[in-house]
Amino acid sequence: MTTTLRTGLIGCGRVAQRVHLPFLTDFPKTQLVAVAETDPRLREQASRQAGCTTVSGYEALLDMSEVEAVVICVPSGLHAEVTIAALNRGKHVYLEKPLATNLEEAQSVLSALQKADTVGMIGFNYRFHRAYQELKEHLRSGSGFGAWIAARTVLTAPEETLPDWKRHRESGGGALLDQASHHFDLMRFLFEDEIEEVSARVRSQRSEGDTATVHTTLAGGLTVQSLLSINTVNEDRFEVYAEKARLSVDRYRSPSVGVVTDSSPIPGSRVLRSGLDLLKHGSYRLQTYRTPGREPSFRSALAHFVESIRAGRSPLPSFDDGYMSLMAVLAAEESARSGHAVRLDSRGLST
């Protein structure tokens, strides 16, 4: 491998333009060789932004012998197809979540990675967010908060920002694939436990499956309640309740963990402190809302991918982590259809 990792970017939509393209063009350990994008307008924008070769089809990019690794940002319904094609050509792959849209495709991706003997990483960048890493340390240490009781999460976004493919489950859309996949992975990452059972209800208001409520039980017994939606305001919160405290991460409002204990200020002064925190982290909030690609977790995840290739080690989160998150998503979908809770084992689902 050369000193700089020669990379290709497949798919250049909004997230790729805000996150991946800037990283690949200015990170000193990567050289962006080519961009593949089917939309002529987006392809022209990528050409101006990156100044590299652009092609319309991903096959042409994968046929370039100089490309050592690819970052894949195509619609979710194409994830398995493009990833398998890249692995079959011996490329290292960073794939935005989800791994695939069904278990059969996901198993084919895992098989292709095993045969390719290259690096495969799934884009769960939340694992690299400073606040979630801080929360994980609290959970590991206990921090004197007593036993963990339950958790609650919210991940929502406005409908008007959706591309058309995210409005239909067949092409990889819906709140469960788009939103819940992140929080299912966070549950496994933070609590270091597997998801055992999922029950869910799904509504379709402005697009297919755009809102879901999910009740998740981990193998150790902890329960997590979640609201996921692509049909309301921007919210991204993860709260954990212990006997003596509540720990919370609010990704849009603060870069650190919020802790409320029995000795925390009385409710009235909490409101005042909340206002002071708002002023303290105001610039962070503005930056996160307006330019989410500048959030450091995206760059940290991609840098980890590059360093893993250079060091010859397997990255985390792995494609196996993507598989387990997808199983939870599919369990939630099955529960919504059947009206019953769905249990997960290592490779399948059962009611």
Short description:
With 351 residues, this protein is an alpha/beta fold. 40% of the residues lie in helices and 24% in strands.
Descriptive report:
With 351 residues, the chain is of the alpha/beta class. The chain folds into 2 domains: 141 residues, Rossmann fold (3-Layer(aba) Sandwich), CATH 3.40.50; 177 residues, Dihydrodipicolinate Reductase, domain 2. The strands form 2 sheets. A 9-stranded mixed sheet has the order 13-12-11-7-10-9-8-14-15, covered by helices on one side. Strands 3-2-1-4-5-6 form a 6-stranded parallel sheet, with helices on both faces. α5 packs antiparallel against α11, α6 crosses α7 and α7 crosses α11.
Structural key phrases:
351 residues, alpha/beta, Rossmann fold, Dihydrodipicolinate Reductase, domain 2, 2 domains, 11 helices, 15 strands, 24% strand
Task: Set down the secondary structure blueprint.
Blueprint (H helix, E strand, L loop, with lengths): L4 E6 L3 H13 L3 E7 L3 H11 L2 E3 L2 H5 L6 E4 L6 H10 L3 E4 L7 H14 L3 E3 L7 H12 L6 E9 L18 H17 L3 E9 L7 E8 L4 E7 L5 E8 L2 E6 L7 E4 L5 H14 L1 H9 L5 H16 L7 H20 L3 E3 L4 E2 L1
Parallel strand pairs: 1-2, 1-4, 2-3, 4-5, 5-6, 7-10
Antiparallel strand pairs: 7-11, 8-9, 8-14, 9-10, 11-12, 12-13, 14-15
Helix pairs in contact: 4-5, 5-11, 6-7, 7-11
